[in-house]
Fold this sequence. Notes:
2 copies of one chain form a homodimer. Chain A is α/β, with parallel strands linked by helices. Chain A has 3 domains: 44 residues, no CATH class; 127 residues, Response regulator (Rossmann fold), CATH 3.40.50; 131 residues, Rossmann fold (3-Layer(aba) Sandwich), CATH 3.40.50.2300. Chain A is built from 13 helices and 12 strands. Chain A has a 6-stranded parallel β-sheet with strand order 2-1-3-4-5-11. The longest helix of chain A is centred in the middle third of the chain and has 16 residues. The mean pLDDT of chain A is 93. At the A-B interface, helix 4, helix 5, strand 2, helix 6 and helix 10 of A face helix 4, helix 5, strand 2, helix 6 and helix 10 of B. Chain A binds a DNA duplex through helix 2 and helix 4.
Amino acid sequence: MTIKQSITLADVATKAGVSKMTASRALRGTGDVSKANVELVRRAARDLGYVGNHLATSLSSQRSVLVGVVVPSLTNIVFAEVLSGIANALEGSGKQAVFGVSDYDPDTEYDVIRNMLSWRPAGLIVTGLEQSADTLKLLRNAEVPVVQIMDLDGDAVDACVGISHAEAGHTMASALLAEGRKRIAYIGCGLERDTRAAKRFRGFKNALIDEGIGLAGERIETGPSTIAVGRALTAQLLADQPDLDCIYYSNDDLAAGGLFHCLSANIDVPGTLRLAGFNGLDLVDSLPKGVATTRTPRREIGIAAARIILDVENGANPPRRVAYTPEIHMP
Amino acid sequence: MTIKQSITLADVATKAGVSKMTASRALRGTGDVSKANVELVRRAARDLGYVGNHLATSLSSQRSVLVGVVVPSLTNIVFAEVLSGIANALEGSGKQAVFGVSDYDPDTEYDVIRNMLSWRPAGLIVTGLEQSADTLKLLRNAEVPVVQIMDLDGDAVDACVGISHAEAGHTMASALLAEGRKRIAYIGCGLERDTRAAKRFRGFKNALIDEGIGLAGERIETGPSTIAVGRALTAQLLADQPDLDCIYYSNDDLAAGGLFHCLSANIDVPGTLRLAGFNGLDLVDSLPKGVATTRTPRREIGIAAARIILDVENGANPPRRVAYTPEIHMP
DNA sequence: GCTGGTACCGATACCGGTATCGGTACCAGC
DNA sequence: GCTGGTACCGATACCGGTATCGGTACCAGC
C-alpha cells in the first residue's frame, strides 16, 4: 500500500510559523520552546489532524518503542493472559507490544522472530527455552534483552521467567499419591510440540516410578488438546482400564473433557476417579465437581517479563531468572 | 532503548564489494543484478547476520507492511480466534498484523488506534461499529482501508464484516419459542460496554414482545461474563423464579455456568429448563448436556477482513459489506 | 559599556533504507 | 564502423523525523 500523502511535521511547522525542529520540540515537550510557540504548534497539529510517524521517529532517534512477543498460539487462553499481562505492564511506559504467533512450529518461530528483529524492538519475549539452533543464534546476536517465558527447565539465552514444569508434574504426582491414588494413568496431547507439557509428563512419571508405583496407563496423541478430545480419550482409556482411580492430563481442557465424560457415564468424581489437569483455568473453578489442577501465574509471568525489558532499558539490572512456584488446587 | 550498533545494508554492500543499491536489489530480488553479485551479497548478508530494517524500508519506500487490528479483549477466545484468522489470511502476503487491545474503553480505543496510525499501517481492522466521535474522525481521515468487524447493525466508516446481532437475538428467540418455551428469562453481563451483546438482547426481547410473550425475567450485571458469574446469576434468578423454562444468556460462558448450576441443583436440562448462549464455543459442544447456542464464524470474519485490506492494496474493489448468517445449534 | 548567562530557535547532518535517473560495457545487426 | 538495445550498476535525492551544534536576543551585574 502506498501511504497516502499525509500531514507531516513540516506542514505543522509551516502552519505554526516555526521550524520543523521547534515544532518537534514543542510536540514532544523537550528542550526550550516558548510557551507561545508550544501553543501555536499544538494548535496547528490539532487543526491539521497531525499524527506522528513512528517509523521516522524510531529510525531517526535510534530508539525503539516496540517489544516483540512470540507465543505458540493465540487461541490458547493461557497465552492470551500472558499477553494481557505484558500489555498492562507496558502501559504508560511508552512501549508497545507486538505479537507474533509461532503455531508451535520452529521454522515459523524463526521467521517470526526474524521479522520482529527487523523492527528493531527494544526487547524480545519468546515462549519456552527450546528453540532451533538458527533461532538461538538470532536471539544471541540480537543485541536486545531477550526474555524466555513459561519455562525454567533449561538454559536461557538471556533471562527467563516462569515455572519448572518438571517440578509441577512431580508435585502433582505427590499430591495424588498423598490422596491415596494407586492406579494412575496419563492422557496427553501434542507433547511433541508442547515441550513444557512433555516436561510435566516426565516429572510426573518419574515421581511415580520413584514411589515404586509407575504409571498404570497412558494415552498420548498428537494434535490439539481440546475439551472434546479429552472427553473422547477418557472414554477410550476407561473402556480399556475401568479400574483406574486417577487420570492426570496434560492440561485443564483435556481434564474438563474427562469430567464431562464421567458426568455422562455416572462415574463419581473425585470419589471413584480423581482427575487432574494443569493451568488453573477459570473453567476448572466452575466445574460442577472439582478437578485438581496446578495454578500457573500467567499474568504475573507476562508482567515480570515486560518489567525485565523495561528495567534493562532504564539501566537497571533486573534478575535473570524469575521463578514462580505453581500452586496445587485439589477440590 | 538505544539500538545497538548493528549490521546495515552498507556493511553488507562493502563486504560484497558492491554499492548499497546493488545490495538492496540483490536481497530483494528486484531489478537487474548479475547472478554473481546476488550470490556475493547473499553470502555477505548471511555471514554478517544481516537483518533488514523495516523501519527504514517502510519509511523510504512509502509502503507499509503492517495491518493494525484493534480488539476489545485478548482473553476472550472469540477475539483470539478472529486474530488467528487475520494472521492466517495475511500469511504469505508480506503483511504483518499488529494487535491492540481497547479493553472495551472508548478512550483507550482512541489511543490505540492513534498509535497504530502512527505506524502508517496498510489498513486497519477495528471491532464494532460504535466508536467515539474522535475515533471516527481519526478513522475517516486515516486514508487507509478501515474494516469494522463483528457487527453489521449500523453504519460503517468504510467496510464491515460480521453478523447482525439484532437478528441473532431475534432468531434465537424464534427457535426457543418454536421449541415450546414460554417463561423465558435473560441473563447478561457487561452490556454497557459490549454493544453487540446489547443488540442481541434487544433483538431477542423485541421478538418475544412481538409474539405477545415478553421476557419473564432478567438479570443484568455490569462486569465480566465468566462461567463463575453465569453460575451465580443463574442460581439467583432461579431462586427468585423457579418456574422458568428457558434462560437466554449474553454468551456461552454464562450459559455454561448456568448449566453447571443446573447440574449441581439437579435441574433437568434441557427438559425442564432450556439454556441458550451465544458464540458456539468448543466448550458448549463438549458440555454433558446441550446448551443451545448461535455459532459465529469468527475465523471467517477475520479472514474476510484481512482479505479486504489485501484486495484494496492490490487495486481490487472488494465488497464493502460481508454478511454472515449465524447458525443456531440446539442440541 | 562590557561580560556572561539564559531562553529560545534553526541549519545541518543523519538514521537506514529505496526510487529514480542516468551511465558504462558489450554485443548484434546492418 | 556506427547504431541501438540489453544487462548491469551506482550517484543522488529523499522518506519524516531527531541529535547536535551554534547563533541571536536580551538582561543582570559590575
